[in-house]
Amino acid sequence: MTFSRRLFLQGTAAAAGLIHVRGLWGGETFHRDNRRALRDAYESLVSGGVNGLHYLPGTHLLGDDGEAATDGSHPSDLGFLRYAAAYEEVLRPLLS
Fold this sequence. Notes:
96 residues; mainly alpha; 2 domains; 3 helices; 55% helix
């Protein structure tokens, strides 16, 4: 990561906080390397001193029952309710 990008992230995360949400769609095999690279970048930033970064795994945002998406992909009302609950769990402590 370039020095300027790291400085931008440090300033932004410290001022407002940043949440990295892991993608949830697509085949696990197809996206495995991309997801690993993003997680590694997140961990590198945190261990490098960038404060205010948070990680939200996206694997279970819609639940596991298949009822939270209208077509298996786009969230329904129930899906957005589950999104809100997952985001609230991460955001509430940050806003307190």
